[in-house]
Specification:
The structure holds three protein chains of three kinds.
Chain A: E1 7-9, H1 12-29, H2 32-35, H3 38-63, H4 72-89, H5 93-115, H6 120-139, E2 150-151, H7 160-187, H8 189-199, H9 201-206, H10 211-237, E3 239-240, H11 242-246, H12 250-261, H13 267-283, H14 288-304, H15 308-317, E4 327-329
Antiparallel strand pairs in A: 1-4, 2-3
Helix pairs in contact in A: 3-7, 3-10, 3-12, 3-13, 4-5, 4-6, 4-10, 5-10, 7-8, 7-10, 12-13, 12-14, 12-15, 13-15
Chain B: E1 7-16, E2 19-29, E3 34-39, H1 45-53, E4 60-65, E5 68-69, H2 75-81, E6 83-86, H3 98-104, H4 116-122, H5 124-128, H6 139-151, E7 157-161, H7 169-184, E8 188-193, H8 196-202, E9 205-210, E10 213-219, H9 225-233
Parallel strand pairs in B: 3-8, 3-9, 6-7, 7-8
Antiparallel strand pairs in B: 1-2, 1-4, 4-5, 9-10
Helix pairs in contact in B: 3-6
Chain C: H1 2-29, H2 36-54, H3 58-84, H4 90-111, E1 127-129, E2 135-137, H5 138-160, H6 162-172, H7 174-179, H8 184-209, H9 217-231, H10 236-256, H11 261-275
Antiparallel strand pairs in C: 1-2
Helix pairs in contact in C: 1-5, 1-8, 1-9, 1-10, 2-3, 2-4, 2-8, 2-9, 3-8, 5-6, 5-8, 6-8, 9-10, 9-11, 10-11
């Protein structure tokens, strides 16, 4: 082997193209509040929230090896934090959105102590139990509106187009933060640790990875993301209730978006969330049929393409818009040894 | 008895993911023969046994049992065809008693001289402990259970992987004494061993593996110690 | 309060039926079937329809439903679940979650969201007066008795039959079982058949005890799961006791404040998880 150094590449052409396209897209989207219709912006906000949820779940399950069926606990805590702070303590509603993330991160600390006692399928259902506890606690909490919930009275009288604009820009920030955050995280040392954990806890431990701490950090980060997404979602909806906030209705999205889109990739949740919303817009009127299709598709994907749709594409074409893997380029040999 | 021998493996290549473990291994054993496989750790001995039991699919090459190619058969089928393994590390079932572990061997449903009674006759100490959880026994006794379990299948070919691992010398003697009795009955045996002298003494022929290849093969008594050393260490 | 305790114990009988089906599958193949509760609900609806078809009561319909469910379990395991069971935890969770969604919504389409019930006439409200002003329902007593019988049968099958031996060995070491000539896929399928049969029985008694709608499945999954975690993996008697503890917790919680009934059960689950993670009666690590 010659003395020329082995080159380690991060990007590739598709990666650089993706970065340019993303910047252009954001600039374009930021102009929406000036001219786009309200329902389009509302859909955009919803997409941002769902995407953040999907990225968080993907981080947990696809990289951290923790399949959670209980992220709705943090969606609920995030949403109710917004309402409690804005309605109850008259904090600026828009500032409450990032605050909700902080509250959820704090809540995740004791919760992780409980759920980390479980593993695999037990962990999944255990997180679900925790979410149910959260839902029931909110339902029994009359100061927060009890079973029927409450409206965001703090924003009554707030000028509508300003509210929609601020909400939309918050949504853009959330998309940038969640996707960018996950991308940054995976390129960091923590990301390397996660990739090792993905191959197996014991293997990772033997490589010196502090598995417990890594999983804890990921769990808290995912909780914060879900909290922010939840707060933003209910900010846009202007109304919250225990079932909507911490009920099971969030789970089909997570499964669909991440599984179908592609687990263990960053592009996957984007593709999956878009597909999920498209299907819902198209079939939403058919209620039960839409969910049947959801479930059936998830099953088929698991059988046929366990890496999801984008996982298939990435494998086939080696394409990554958000490159997190390092590609080793070996120098060409000067002579072929027999 | 077909001309090809009881079991013939030709050109076996095997890999774990991207790492190749076996390179072009040829192997044969006749009915009633005792064949030893020796080699350092990582030489590919256990991997080779795995290609015989069906646990690992070779990437190239072919295995025949009594002249019939068995490449397409899976592990349970091969067990029912008479290929039995005493696994490295015993792999007894912790939730089962000694007797239940032995009875698990009979799921291969093959006729022959080995029954619970005859296994207890071979290993009387097991009869006294038949109701105990199998993993509560000493290492040597567990090895006996593992051998007994394999015998319960009345195999045509018995594969033993590192029987002496973790056992005291006097226990190893007992185990191999019992194995000798099994061989006297005409059982074809392949055993993988770290102890080269033991392997030479107990076998008719010896193979020496090195880095996934067959480095040496021949009649056990005819091979000189220096030859085996050279093949074992690759000097 | 004594009444609440007794009602809780009897409720535990029903929860034991929920839990034992889950314990069979988890014990043999480490699979948490997310659709477990929905299958219980499906069984209730199936009993409803079969009974209507036969112009008879649920007790006449149930043998058919049990047989049908056993077959369903075998086929589903062989055809679908065996394909996704492996080292990765995600695929079986996704598939069983997908099944859960499909079952719930197919039932919704087929039967609408109206509450249904399995009609057993006077039996549903008959009660025995055991003195001290306490009345125990005949139906809950029957359920408790059936649950005891099921636990006994499962213990016997797992502990003293060749099939049970195969179950335990496969749960210990699937790869070695294959090397002994056993088809591990078939073992799993047999376990699923048994689990589904227990589920059918659970569905029958659930449908008699309460009105049911297509969306109740997840709740039942949680109760079954909590009972299994509280008791730990070991014996079906342990699962039985775990279920009773859950039933008592819920019942006493409900007596204190109706809104807190289910929560009390959740808290007991949390407490066991924090204090004794492997369960109260675990034979070995789960």
């Amino acid at each position: 082997m010659s003395a020329r150094a082995v080159a380690i590449e991060r990007g590739g052409r598709a990666g650089r193209a993706g970065a340019v396209a993303a910047l252009a897209a954001f600039a374009f989207l930021a102009t929406f509040p000036a001219w786009a219709p309200s329902d389009v912006m509302r859909l955009g906000v919803e997409f941002a929230c769902l995407l953040a949820l999907a990225q968080a779940w993907n981080l947990l399950a696809g990289y951290g090896g923790m399949v959670s069926l209980g992220q709705q606990a943090f969606i609920g805590i995030g949403g109710y934090t917004l309402f409690a702070l804005a309605n109850g303590l008259h904090v600026n509603a828009f500032l409450c959105v990032p605050a909700a993330g902080v509250v959820c991160a704090l809540a995740a600390v004791p919760i992780s102590r409980v759920v980390f006692r479980l593993h695999g399928g037990y962990f999944a259902v255990g997180t679900w139990v925790v979410a149910e506890i959260v839902r029931l606690l909110f339902a029994n909490w009359s100061a927060l509106g009890g079973g029927s919930g409450q409206s965001l009275t703090a924003l009554v009288g707030f000028e509508r187009s300003t509210r929609e604009a601020l909400t939309f820009w918050l949504a853009l920030a959330l998309v940038a933060a969640s996707t960018g955050g996950v991308w940054w995280l995976l390129r960091s040392r923590l990301g390397l640790a996660l990739t090792a954990i993905r191959d197996g806890d014991a293997v990772a431990e033997s490589q010196g990875v502090d598995v417990a701490r890594t999983k804890f950090v990921v769990y808290v980060a995912a909780a914060a993301a879900c909290g922010v997404a939840g707060a933003l979602y209910f900010l846009s909806a202007l109304r919250i209730s225990p079932d909507a906030a911490a009920g099971m209705g969030w789970i089909p999205l997570l499964f669909f978006a991440v599984i179908v889109g592609g687990i263990g990739t960053i592009e996957g949740p984007i593709v999956g969330t878009a597909l999920y919303l498209a299907l819902r817009q198209g079939l939403g009127d058919y209620g039960a049929w839409y969910l049947i299709a959801d479930g059936a598709i998830a099953i088929v994907i698991m059988l046929v393409a366990p890496r999801g749709l984008f996982g298939l594409v990435a494998e086939r074409f080696g394409m990554h818009l958000f490159p997190v893997r390092s590609i080793v380029r070996l120098p060409t040999p000067e002579r072929i040894e027999p | 008895m077909s001309a090809g021998g009881l079991l013939v493996a030709q050109g076996i290549c095997a890999a774990y993911g991207d790492v190749q473990a076996l390179f072009d291994v040829d192997f044969r054993i006749e009915a009633g023969e005792r064949v030893a496989i020796v080699g350092a750790n990582g030489a590919g001995k256990s991997t080779f046994l795995a290609t015989l039991t069906g646990a690992v699919r070779p990437t190239r090459g072919s295995v025949s049992l009594d002249g019939a190619v068995i490449d397409r058969t899976d592990a349970p089928q091969r067990a029912r065809m008479g290929v039995a393994l005493v696994p490295e590390g015993r792999r007894l079932f912790p939730s089962l008693s000694v007797e239940e572990n032995l009875r698990m061997g009979a799921f291969a449903r093959r006729a022959g001289p080995w029954t619970l009674a005859s296994v207890y006759e071979l290993f009387p100490v097991l009869a006294q402990r038949r109701a105990l959880p199998a993993t509560k026994l000493s290492g040597g006794q567990q090895q006996m259970v593992a051998i007994g379990r394999a015998l319960m299948a009345n195999p045509r070919l018995l594969l033993c992987d590192e029987l002496s691992l973790g056992l005291a010398p006097v226990v190893i003697k007992d185990v191999y004494r019992a194995l000798a009795r099994v061989c006297d009955g005409g059982q074809a045996i392949v055993f993988v061993e770290q102890d080269v002298e033991l392997a030479r003494r107990m076998s008719d022929r010896t193979y020496c593996f090195l880095h996934g290849r067959v480095a040496l093969e021949g009649a056990s008594q005819a091979l000189a110690r220096e030859q085996i050393s050279a093949a074992y260490f690759g000097v | 309060m004594l009444n609440a305790l007794l009602q809780g114990i009897l409720l535990g009988g029903l929860y034991a039926l929920f839990a034992m089906g889950l314990a069979v599958i988890y014990g043999v193949m480490r699979l948490v079937n997310i659709a477990h509760g929905d299958l219980i609900v499906l069984a209730a609806y199936a009993t409803l329809s079969v009974a209507a078809l036969l112009h008879a009561g649920p007790f006449v319909a149930i043998p058919i439903v049990i047989a049908g469910f056993a077959v369903l379990g075998y086929v589903m395991q062989r055809g679908l679940l065996n394909r996704v069971l492996g080292a990765d935890v995600l695929p079986p969770l996704v598939v069983t979650y997908g099944l859960s969604l499909v079952i719930q919504n197919v039932l919704l389409q087929a039967y609408s969201a109206d509450a249904r019930s399995l009609d057993v006439g006077g039996l549903a409200t008959a009660s025995l007066h055991v003195g001290g002003g306490i009345a125990l329902g005949v139906m809950p007593l029957l359920v408790f008795g059936v649950a005891l019988a099921v636990a006994a049968v499962l213990e016997y099958v797992f502990g003293h039959t060749r099939l049970g031996m195969a179950f335990r060995a496969t749960a210990d070491d699937r790869a070695t079982v294959r090397l002994l000539g056993l088809d591990d896929g078939g073992v799993y399928a047999a376990a699923a058949a048994i689990s589904f049969a227990v589920v059918a029985i659970a569905g029958l008694f659930m449908g008699i005890k309460t009105t049911f709608t297509p969306d109740l499945g997840p709740n039942f999954l949680l109760y079954a799961f909590e009972a299994v975690v509280i008791s730990g993996l070991g014996s079906f008697w342990g699962t039985f006791v775990g279920a009773i503890l859950l039933g008592v917790a819920q019942s006493i919680g409900f007596a204190i404040n109706p809104g807190w009934g289910i929560l009390a059960g959740h808290f007991v689950f949390l407490a066991v998880l924090l204090w004794r993670p492997t369960g109260l009666f675990a034979r070995s690590a789960a």
